[in-house]
Design brief:
By secondary structure, this protein is α+β, with helices and mostly antiparallel strands. The protein has helices at about 5-70, 70-80, 80-100, 135-140, 180-185, 220-230, 285-315, 320-405, 405-435, 445-455, 460, 480-500, 530-535, 550-560, and strands at about 105, 115, 145-150, 155-165, 170-175, 190-195, 200-205, 240-245, 250-255, 260-270, 275-280, 440-445, 465, 475-480, 505-515, 515-525, 565-570, 575-585.
Length: about 575
């Protein structure tokens, strides 16, 4: 044995083990980061779906207090009519059974219950004083209110929606979320909704209810316990530990299962300050990381074995050394081929995304050009009269010059200049509308796209009663002028088509402002949107018009999303009401 080689071998083994350990750690870290990123994207989509379902459940009941607030039995019952109150009890019981509301009851001006859907039960609310409840105080002060709390009689958690009624009373509807919580529990992830203060209200883990995800002062705890009726043992910290972070995502562990890791995702519910939170187990990520590390270890072992064999055989026979080198080369070729294949797949995916973007923009451009086809006749009519007037002014001007009346001829020239300016504005707006959008989102005056769309559709709008908002000076939004014009032209063209058979057609544009957004509405008095297509209105190729393609609203919604805004259909008593939400600079 060559004893001089022994220390060298030990050194190479130590170096190899150090490099292998580093590669194993690095491969695991990269694999975990990528897997968590993918899981985060998937779970965020699932969280958004649960948020939408939760929001729809609440919205289902918001109009119930409004509808009941003008009920004749309610108004008569508030005056003391016992017959009306008995009829109202029966009506509330039927409504609760039909709608699925937990309870519906009516309070008088002092906050005392005078009628209830459970009036015939042992736990009837009739006669109970609820003037201490926040939902009563909010409705008394502002006309309506909402509060999440435990029931004082039922001791069941729920959301209370209240509204002031005609006759000085108040209608209260209670919603309970047992069915949603049970559905969430069956799905596997831990799902819960927190208030603005971080208090868990609705949860797939009932033992977490009324715990907190943020520290709350002692004084605040007393106030919230009184509002929620949650008891002295409530408002303890949620039993989660290790509020770590993985690329901006929280990783937590239950206190009773410290080895179990969960990915924490949060989305807004639409209720002021409320958040829907979802904790997804990372065991799939951990299995993937173990698989990647095992594959890396196997690869390193193969590589080390090849190197070791090649070195050993090099000292014995040249032929065996060559074979070992060939095997090492083959392994390297496999790695190179796989790397090249992955790079090709990445290039193909990037190319596909580029083509998709190009096709999407082409579809928007085609939509604008299709709109131009409908607008051209109106533009021709709009410019025909100024052209005829220019011809008349020019002929009269020539005669005036021949007669030597230069001052009158100069007046004709001024009139011609004014008419050409008018034609120039119309044709310039039409050219701008036909161009492709730049894609650049910038702070632009809102008046520009509004006036441009009205100018493009001027001749068609002449047959309707058009009501325009008073736009504040300097009002700006984050948008692209041409693309915002395209959305407005699309919405107003749809309104014009809907108003073709209406006796007194009217279109109204309105603007509402808050700190961060501008709400621009397009409202008509037509027949409205067919209920059969309302739920799929922004789905491609869904339309209620025989000649429609079902792409205009899809493209408009896509444009608004690209500009950081939204397009949605709002409920309306008559006609259609579309609302654009735009960000302010």
């Amino acid at each position: 044995m060559d004893h001089t080689r022994f220390p060298t071998r030990i050194l190479w083994i130590a170096v190899f083990l150090g490099v292998a350990s580093g590669l194993l750690w690095l491969s695991g870290e990269i694999a975990e980061r990528n897997a968590i990123a993918r899981l985060g994207a998937e779970t965020r989509g699932a969280a958004i779906l649960r948020q939408a379902y939760f929001k729809s459940e609440i919205e289902r009941f918001r109009l119930l207090p409004v509808a009941l607030s003008d009920d004749s039995d309610l108004v008569a019952g508030l005056t003391g009519s016992q017959a009306a109150l008995r009829a109202l009890d029966r009506k509330l019981e039927a409504l609760a059974r039909t709608t699925g509301a937990a309870q519906i009851y009516v309070l008088d001006a002092s906050g005392r219950t005078v009628a209830s859907s459970n009036a015939g039960s042992e736990r009837s609310f009739v006669g109970q004083d609820y003037s201490f409840r926040n939902y009563f105080k909010l409705a008394a002060a502002h006309g309506s209110g909402a509060q999440f709390a435990l029931g004082t009689i039922s001791e069941r958690p729920g959301m209370y929606l209240s509204r002031r009624s005609r006759g000085g009373g108040y209608v209260v509807v209670k919603l309970e979320f047992d069915r949603i919580e049970q559905q969430w529990a069956r799905l596997g992830e831990i799902t819960f909704i927190t208030s603005r203060e971080g208090i868990i209200l609705i949860t797939s883990r009932p033992d977490w209810r009324f715990t907190t995800i943020h520290p709350i002062s002692g004084e605040a705890k007393q106030r919230f316990r009184a509002e929620l009726q949650s008891g002295r043992g409530s408002l303890l910290p949620v039993p989660l530990k290790g509020m770590g972070d993985a690329d901006g995502r929280q990783i937590v562990s239950p206190a009773d299962e410290p080895r179990r890791r969960l990915l924490w995702q949060s989305v807004s519910t639409g209720e002021p300050g409320w958040q829907l939170n979802m904790l997804t187990p990372l065991h799939g990520v951990e299995n993937f990381v173990r698989t990647v590390r095992l594959a890396t270890l196997l690869f390193l072992m193969l590589l080390a074995g090849g190197i070791w064999i090649s070195r050993e055989r090099a000292h014995r026979r040249t032929e065996r050394a060559a074979m070992a080198a060939a095997r090492t080369s083959e392994l390297e070729s496999m790695v190179t081929a796989r790397t090249r294949e992955l790079r090709r797949e990445m290039d193909e995916r990037a190319a596909s995304e580029t083509r998709a973007d190009t096709l999407r923009e082409g579809l928007r451009q085609a939509n604008r050009l299709a709109s131009l086809g409908q607008i051209t006749a109106g533009i021709a009519h709009e410019t025909a009269q100024p052209v005829a007037a220019i011809r008349s002014y020019a002929a009269n001007g020539r005669l005036l010059i021949e007669r030597g009346d230069t001052s009158a001829a100069a007046e004709n020239m001024v009139a011609i200049e004014r008419l050409t300016d008018r034609i120039g504005k119309v044709t310039a707006e039409l050219r701008g509308f036909s161009r492709k959008a730049t894609g650049a989102i910038d702070a632009i005056p809102l008046a520009g796209p509004v006036e441009g769309s009205l100018l493009i559709l001027k001749s068609r709008l002449a047959r309707v009663a058009l009501q325009l908002p008073d736009l504040p000076d300097g009002l700006r939004v984050m948008a692209d002028t041409i693309r915002l014009e395209q959305v407005l032209v699309n919405l107003m063209q749809n309104a014009l088509e809907a108003l073709e058979d209406v006796a007194a057609p009217a279109i109204r544009l309105s603007v509402a402002l808050d700190t961060d957004t501008v709400l621009l509405s397009v409202i008509d008095n037509g027949p409205g949107i067919d209920p059969s297509v309302q739920d799929q209105l922004f789905t491609p190729f869904v339309t209620s018009r025989p000649s429609g393609l079902g792409l205009g609203l899809v493209i408009a919604s896509d444009i608004m999303a690209d500009m950081g805004g939204t397009l949605r259909l709002l409920p309306s008593d008559a006609g259609a009401h579309f609302q654009l939400r735009l960000k302010r600079p």
